[in-house]
Amino acid sequence: MPAAAPAAPRSRVVVLLSGAGTLCAALLVATDDAGYPAEVVAVGADRPDAAGLATARARGIDTFVTPLRDHPDRAAWDRALAAELSARRPDWVVSAGFMKLLGPAVLDAFGGRVLNTHPALLPAFPGAHAVRDALAAGVATTGATVHLVDAGLDTGPVVAQRVVPVLPGDDEARLHERIKTVERELLVHTLADLVTQVPADTTHDRPQESTR
Predict the structure, then answer these.
(1) Mind listing the pLDDT tens digit for each residue in 38-56?
(2) Where is the signal peptide (predicted)?
């Protein structure tokens, strides 16, 4: 009987968050399935009190914090964040409720491999108040988007979207909660699709060459 083929290496993912980390939690649950093609190897935040860090730590996952206030300017913070990310050797970086724009140091290091989720159907309603803006505009539908990150504000190429209807009587909290449910599912499925199309870098698993 022929030996079973070795399992493909799982893609290494670092998640960035700023708050409760419900999107990150959804990814962590997905990775409990051995067949899921990615693993979260670290979770980073820009705030030490971000609740999502505790969820990661409870699972024994590496965490780090890079506060903007600890650096003389935004460029220095961006370089420090790029260094923290590079140290974890990710195949993909997922910005999951991370409330800071990523700068050139991060994007130069991981360009084309940084995903973000957004609670609207981009290019409609970019920015931090997408749900409020959709309600103010009186649209009948909004939704969730997963896109690649570029230097703009929610301007990177759209990878996947899903529609969420605006229901009579919706306020910002109610609509946002329904969008977040869809957003979590969309992120889990989209990341799996992407990492399957772009296999993990198996050099992460090779012994490091001696520099002596």
Answers:
(1) 999 999 999 999 999 999 9
(2) 1-25
Which residue ranges are tagged as binding site for (6R)-10-formyltetrahydrofolate?
74, 99-102, 116
- CATH number (domain holding residue 129): 3.40.50.170
Per the structure, the complete domain to which residue 73 belongs is given by: 11-197
Looking at the 3D structure of the chain, how many domains does it have? 1
Is residue 139 a part of any domain in this protein? yes
CA distances from 191 to 12, 75, 91, 139, 162 (A): 11, 28, 11, 28, 14
204 is catalytic: no
- Looking at the whole model, is its pTM more than 0.85? yes
C-beta separation of 66 from 75 below 8 A? no
